[in-house]
Design a protein that fits this description.
Elements lengths: L2 H4 L4 H14 L5 H12 L5 H12 L6 H24 L3 E2 L2 E2 L1 H5 L1 H20 L4 H24 L7 H26 L4 H28 L2 H4 L5 H4 L5 H9 L2 H13 L4 H10 L2 H19 L7 H15 L3
Antiparallel strand pairs: 1-2
Function: Supplies octaprenyl diphosphate, the precursor for the side chain of the isoprenoid quinones ubiquinone and menaquinone.
Keywords: Magnesium, Metal-binding, Transferase
Enzyme class: transferase
Amino acid sequence: MSLPTLFAPIADDMKAVDAVIRARLDSDVPLIRTIADYIIGAGGKRMRPALLLLIARSLNYQGTNHHLMAAVVEFIHTATLLHDDVVDESSLRRGRPTANAVFGNAASVLVGDFLHSRSFQMMVETGSVRVMQILADATNVIAEGEVLQLLNVHDPLVTEERYFQVVRYKTARLFEASSQLGAVLAGATPEQEAAATEFGRRIGTAFQLIDDVLDYSGDADALGKNLGDDLREGKPTLPLIRVMNVGTPSQQALIREAIETGEGDFAAVAAAIRESDALAYTRQRAVEEADAARQALEAYPISDFRNSLIEFCAFAVNRDR
């Protein structure tokens, strides 16, 4: 099932969010508009805004702040992408050159800062200290996750525990905050808010795990990024960690050298991953996270919005991009 089909119950809301995004990207500084339009215009799945909207609507939210906050989480996500691509020296995202490849590192970092600060301007408009607390905490944890990942780079001894800590800080945290915000905006009970938080954390983790699978088994054109980028950056993702744990001595030596240098033979590494159970193991961990996310939704009333959230759990682990 495609994302447009999954998000059909909130199609009008998504259009409203896009309108907010376009309006709030405005700046008197032309370069800011140019770069922001470039990265936003590249598309993207808009998953975090969609989860916020679906959670809010599933709890019968009738206001308009969900459009504003959905745009906020997309701005925060976009800012992290701009900064990530600079740190990782990436050249391709969503099927075209990264903003730093086109406009330079300095401009990308500074526009990322603009998007962060603009998002905080927007969240203040809700007048909710709770909303500001959730997003401020999430932004801080995401930054910690970025630093944790930096510490793991080129370290072949990274454990699964350290890997999952980075995933939950760096990737899953904004999914978690988005889902939690949807519940808070809708005046959820403590149980419903906790369920939304659990859902977001679990589904965000599942999404990252599948990204790590696709880095070694996907199609470069479909993914819109260079296959093997994580390996070239020296990032020990779960498939690599799994081979280090269960592979043959020669496979372990191959992976160790690749992580340490970032210059390993990608074909040989990919073969070692395929010959072991690394991809199946990583995918199974993703399925477990998605199943836990689905179970969290049992606290929500039956509706088309809840159905979309449930179907999203299957999409998260069955996708090819």
